[in-house]
Amino acid sequence: MSKLSGKTALVTGASRGIGRAIAQRLAADGAYVAVHYGHNEAAAKETVATIEEAGGRAFTIRAELGAPGDVDTLFAGLEDGLDGRRLDILVNNAGGAMGTGSIERTTPEEFDRLVALNMRAPFFIIQRALPLLSDGGRIVNISSADTRIAITQELAYSMAKGAINVLSRTLAQAVGERGITVNTVAPGITDTEPNAWIHSSPEVEALTATASALNRIGRPSDIADIVAFLASDDARWITGDLIDATGGTFLGPRI
Fold first, then answer.
1. Is 32 a catalytic residue?
2. Which of 80, 113, 187, 239 has the lowest CB atom count within 10 Å?
3. Active-site position among 32, 59, 157, 229
4. What distance lies between CA 139 and its chain's CA centroid?
């Protein structure tokens, strides 16, 4: 029997990249997956199609996170798709740097949009999900290695993701009596569409790979496998933890 057979899951930002890989892996393990997307309906439908082709079950939900009414829209679609079922697994994956940069270049408007997507949305999604979430459920929040590594051109983004780390640890304490676990996964540089610059030249590819102790670029499936473990009963005794999913990026100089 699949580890997540009979379970339901919501994965935000699941139309592509890491989110798509997470949705596909949870479905492969038996979960019925709500594939959330913000704008790219075709990509979200493609995610569902790949899941169904592999024998899994999924449906799409559209909600522009960070916009007014985002959580209401998201949960209207979720509850309609679940059709009376409870939610077992919540993966807050949606986010992004949104073009913001260093302390000198980030505008107040950009900062507010970034916080709304990366910090505010996960907080209120969890708030709304808790009454729907089964006892013994799983919450996995996707953070970033930028909270450990000083990337000056993504300062505001790093701050927002740092808040997610705090949210997960404190929330784990708050909901532990219900048997709900809350953990954070912090990916490093991963081969996704927003990181297409990785392949701008063989030199850039090689340099990016050498930043990892494992000497390769991360894949979305690397992150999805970790999330699937945390969503399973195998991880029942892990909560409030932050997993650095970077392949050992910038552990130290190569001598």
1. no
2. 80
3. 157
4. 10
